[in-house]
Design goal:
With 816 residues, this protein is mainly β. It has a 33-stranded mixed beta sheet that branches. A 5-stranded mixed beta sheet has the order 4-3-6-7-9, with no helix packed on it. The chain starts with a helix and ends with a strand.
Length: 816
Amino acid sequence: MRRILLIVFSALAFVIHCFPQSGSAAPGAIRGEVVTRAQTGEPAVLPHAHIVLRGPVNKEAESDGRGTFVIDGLPPGNYDIEASAPGLNAALTVEVKPGTLSVVPIELTMAAVTNTVTVTASDPSPVEESAQKNTISQSTVEKAPNQEEKVESLLPLVPGVVRGPDGRINMKGAQATQAGWLVNSTNVTDPATGGQAINLPIDVVSSVQVISNPYDPEYGKFTGAVSSVETRPGNLDKFHFSVQNIVPRARDRGGHIMGIGAFTPRVTFTGPLLKDRLAFTQSFEYRFVRTPVESLPPLQRDTKLESFDSFTQLDLKINEKQTATLSAAVFPQKLDYFGLNTFVPQPSTPDLHQRGYQISGQHRYVSGSGGLFTSQLAYEHFDADLLGNSQDPYRLLVETTEGGFFNRQNRNTDRVQWQEMYQSSAKHFHGSHQLKAGFDLSHSSYDGREQFLPVDIVGVAGSTLQRIEFGAPANFSVRQTEFAWFVGDQWTVWPRLTFDLGLRFDKDSVTDATHAAPRAALTLALTNDRRTLLKAGAGLFYDRVPLNVPAFPSFPDRTILAFDPAGEAVSSTPYSNVITGGIRNPRSGAWNVEIDRQVMERLLVRVAYQQRNTVHDLVVAPVTTPNGNFLSLANNGRDFYREFQITGRYQIHRHTLNASYVRSKATGDLNDFNQFFGNDPQPVIQADARGPLPFDAPNRFLAWGEFIAPWKMTVMPVFDLHTGFPYSVVNQQREFVGPRDEERFRRFESLDIQVFKEFALPFRGKEHKVKLGLGVFNVFNYFNPRDVQNDLDSPRFGQFFNGPNRTFRGKLVFGF
């Protein structure tokens, strides 16, 4: 770790030395207040407005619960501020000069507003919110190294968020299916599995937040953290058009070109259909991507993704106090050779084909008293098919896998969601109160079909040790209605102390239960200059129940046959699928404490601790009783997560460096239901056990930043170093040997860099731009294996495979 810290600080010193700033003026800062105008003419504050600052340095922020925000570390100069909330926006031209702190009022309306303000400021302060929010801004979305060019691929920039060994995002020590996934406040999970089920072109994303322990009662149906994506509002003033990735990438195999490796063109445009009244946004993205598994033969090592993502949005100004937004997303995709790795060749993998679309409408109304009413109605349809690539019998060998994949799935799901929320203007009674109340009603349906084919477990000698046989294919249909209502109050007792109080009730027709989830948090300014903030909170959170769970008893049963060395069956054990003890909603109790300190003018430091205990998790295990043998699905799983975090943000005039160290522990029951009955099910189910979760990374150091290099180039490096993920040891019968998840992969270490340069087209004027970029991924070509031979009976036991090589990606963006 000392070596890594030395590298980081050496790089920082190099940046300061190589990229000096002209002038000696002290940087400025902007403290803003975001409001809208009520019918009475009185201003009403707008919390959670999105702020974008463009000028000598580009930054983003969000207004807090009192409508205020702070942007610090600004070199003198002229800046454009764009502020937006659902259906509202405003624009300001700001001149920053060194001096004392000034407050800039920003009034949001549907039409853009242009003003000129002179600001003199040099007094930054930490963000004053009780929940731990990490925002990936629009600037980061555009410029950060992102090999997949997907929004979720940027989430590991947040401390405590990792991409697990299965490729899925795990936020704050929770399974991907335990998280909340939102787009414009709408639930976008798959009703059947609980995983994320929407793809958006990255160009339409304004920002994405990871909210750990959100004490706002508006948030529910999760036991981990929440990912909340906001899309960009349409432009009401003039048209903008961009096109990129129009040149395909070749597939290189040993210095020879073997077809196309990837082709990912993307087109986005936005502009007014009726000036200052109706804006239109449209983005299209086609993706054809081959991703290699380096340890397989050259022409048999690629997974193949083909998808088409479309996003359409209309932003309408009805009148001065009413706005509306209508959006539609379409996202079909085909993923061939899903789950390909060193020990599962292409013929033994399935193809995962998914089709989905979502339509969402939102209406906002500002009352005469300044309260904000928000109504939202959304419909989501999502289908998934799991198909085999071979009809041969599926055989699990020690060194590889043979035959066609053992599972076939067909899932058709729908969800209708209706949300209403009211947020009051400030009320004064023993302090200031910002009240919130609302409800959320959704109805989901799931019609599916499951088929399982026989599976043979083959030993070192080549003979069959066990065979798993299944019952006839099963069809099923499940319905679920969920209703939640909530109330909350952000109570500012005195200027330095604010409480966030909330109570949420969730009712679920599958569990037939109503749960109360109280939450409370505080923010206390420990010093008069508000540079030191204490934040703490605690609350209960209840998760949704994926519809695969009530459908489980309808899945085909299984029978385990054991064979002797001569190939004769010596035993036959049937297992019936049962739900033991009924179905309950998983529940987590979480708390956190945090101190944010503006140590120096340009240095913000956060020291935080959080802990979460989750009970009633859904786990699967074989059970033998006097009444028979059962494959039991029960709510007896428990997860535990704790995290100690130190994070710093240092701004060097036009440069920003973020660095964090996280010491964490994620443990729990290891027979999670989705690993056996999700998109990529495992055929062998052993007894449940507790241990480190598959994505547990006890030590993680993360550093990334945005630097302005000579010739006005933007450089964004990302350095990630963490403990290797755990894995279990098995024998030739696929039985676990020793404690589960006791071994670990080697340490993960990677440096990615993206360089951007923007040019103005000389024959088109300043508004017509070209961006050139180069991304280098795994700069030092460090071996980060994804596969390990964990079979004790293999001669290659303990060897690692499938580490991605250094990769170069060019980028060309035309903007008009």
